[in-house]
């Protein structure tokens, strides 16, 4: 009796479970931690997956793995021999390699403020306060200048923004935010070589010979990265390319811009035929290459690009790009809408739980998300109440940067379908306003999600079959 009491006392002290006269280790790797006695067993650490670091999966220290294996059964019961203390030593703490935190991309140009609505006297006063003018240009949309200013040493950007905004009545100031091209992930080709251009037939896109009812109205504006005009798909296309960045700034890559331009207007007899026949495109390269080899567009250049396209009387502007909210950009797209110019933007590829990106999230624009040929949403596409319509955006065959073609995926490549669609609708319905054209796109969309407008598909998937019948 004393012997059993001694064993029970030892079990209580060491946190063991007594069962059938054996000592069962609690918390040892590979052992059972349950007991009909209802004893509380030790909790595992958060990174404990129940296994040890040794090849045999055993835990505990001291002695060889073969001794530990022979000294206890598969249930962890001590059968004698070896070192009893092995049972009380838990598995060695596993060292979990910590992943380095993701590198946060800068969201704005360091030490710069941009503004519109400053008169000459205000700019001079700001200069006396230590601000340096880095650039300025007249804007036809607002009837004023956009000014880029360096912030005085020691002044925070927030304080600088407030001071610049207060420098003149009606002035608007903000950071010089960065915008990225909406590049998605690589996807395998959905069809064989030479046939991928036919993917659009799966969604009923009108054939190039559908007649004049399917031609585009007026020039189409495009703001994107650099474009390769020598690509066979773009040779002979009515394409005007304008670069806004300073000459000394490294030119942006040509992959994204070439792909989007060819998707809209590529030669019909090329390996990457476009959606529109005989379209005229005015493309503005507002991007430049950064030290990290990324393509970015400053708000300063993006606003200038929009203003330039508005002055060229384009019918629609395609912006397969995204970035943070910017007060100057918001004001600019509002002024464009007043000019009866349609604006289409990619919704972004940061995932369904990501915050809305701009300019797509501004109400004046048609925000486009991406789906595949079966109308399933692209897994990385943004979602939200601002989404207006979905279009084909996975495995879209278009031009590569140098020659030939390749499939591309992302909301960047869904937006041109809507851009081409509204250009056709504007040609077919010249009396309709930009707002009415946008409503027509929504009304003719295939409602594939929740009834009505939903955060995944917006009003539904673009119905290309109705474009030339509207």
Your description of this structure?
The protein has 470 residues and is α/β, with parallel strands linked by helices. The chain has three domains: 2-88, no CATH class; 108-178, Alpha-Beta Plaits (2-Layer Sandwich), CATH 3.30.70; 180-466, 3-Layer(aba) Sandwich (Rossmann fold), CATH 3.40.50. It contains nine helices and 18 strands. The protein has helices at residues 2-14, 65-71, 120-128, 157-165, 255-265, 299-311, 327-338, 415-428, 434-444; strands at 17-19, 22-24, 108-116, 132-139, 144-150, 172-181, 220-224, 238-243, 280-285, 288-289, 295-298, 316-319, 321-322, 342-346, 366-371, 389-392, 396-399, 405-408. The strands form four sheets. Strands 3, 4, 5, 6, 10, 11 and 13 form a seven-stranded antiparallel beta sheet that branches. Strands 8-9-7-12-14-15-16 form a seven-stranded parallel beta sheet, sandwiched between helices. The longest helix has 14 residues, at 415-428. The radius of gyration is 32 Å and the shape is globular. It starts with a helix and ends in a 26-residue tail after the last helix. Residues 1-80 and 84-88 have low confidence and may be disordered.
């Amino acid at each position: 009796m004393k012997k059993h009491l001694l064993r029970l006392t030892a079990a209580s002290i060491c946190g063991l479970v007594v069962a059938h006269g054996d000592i069962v280790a609690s918390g040892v790797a590979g052992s059972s931690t349950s007991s009909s006695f209802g004893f509380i067993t030790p909790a595992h650490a958060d990174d404990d997956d129940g296994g040890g670091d040794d090849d045999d999966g055993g835990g505990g220290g001291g002695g060889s793995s073969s001794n530990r294996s022979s000294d206890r059964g598969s249930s962890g019961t001590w059968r004698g021999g070896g070192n009893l203390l092995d049972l009380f030593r838990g598995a060695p703490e596993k060292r979990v390699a910590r992943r380095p935190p993701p590198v946060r991309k800068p969201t704005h140009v360091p030490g710069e403020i941009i503004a519109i609505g400053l008169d000459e006297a205000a700019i001079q006063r700001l200069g006396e306060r230590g601000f340096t003018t880095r650039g300025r240009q007249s804007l036809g949309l607002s009837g004023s200048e956009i000014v880029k200013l360096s912030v005085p040493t020691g002044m925070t950007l927030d304080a600088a923004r407030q001071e610049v905004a207060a420098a003149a009545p009606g002035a608007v100031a903000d950071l010089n935010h960065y915008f990225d091209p909406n590049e998605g992930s690589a996807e395998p080709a959905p069809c064989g070589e030479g046939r991928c251009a036919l993917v659009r037939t799966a969604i009923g896109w009108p054939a190039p010979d559908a007649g004049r009812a399917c031609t585009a109205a007026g020039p189409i504006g495009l703001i994107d990265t650099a474009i390769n005009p020598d690509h066979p798909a773009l040779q002979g296309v009515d394409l005007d390319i304008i670069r806004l960045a300073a000459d000394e700034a490294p030119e942006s890559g040509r992959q994204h811009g070439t792909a989007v331009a060819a998707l809209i207007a590529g030669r019909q007899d090329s390996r990457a035929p476009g959606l529109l026949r005989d379209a005229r495109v005015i493309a503005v390269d507002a991007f430049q290459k950064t030290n990290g080899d990324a393509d970015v567009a400053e708000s300063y250049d993006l606003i200038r690009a929009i203003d330039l396209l508005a002055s060229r009387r384009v019918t629609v502007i395609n912006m397969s790009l995204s970035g943070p909210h910017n007060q100057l950009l918001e004001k600019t797209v509002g002024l464009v809408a007043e000019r009866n110019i349609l604006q289409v933007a990619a919704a972004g590829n940061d995932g369904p739980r990501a915050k809305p990106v701009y300019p797509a999230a501004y109400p004046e624009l048609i925000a486009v998300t991406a789906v595949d040929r079966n109308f399933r949403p692209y897994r990385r596409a943004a979602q939200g109440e601002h989404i207006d319509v979905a279009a084909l955006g996975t495995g879209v065959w278009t031009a590569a940067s140098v020659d030939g073609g390749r499939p591309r995926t992302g909301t960047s490549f869904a937006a041109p379908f809507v851009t081409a669609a509204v250009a056709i609708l504007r040609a077919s319905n010249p009396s309709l306003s930009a707002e009415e054209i946008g409503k027509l796109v929504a009304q003719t969309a295939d409602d594939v999600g929740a009834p009505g407008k939903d955060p995944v598909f917006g009003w539904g998937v673009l119905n290309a079959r109705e474009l030339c019948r509207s």
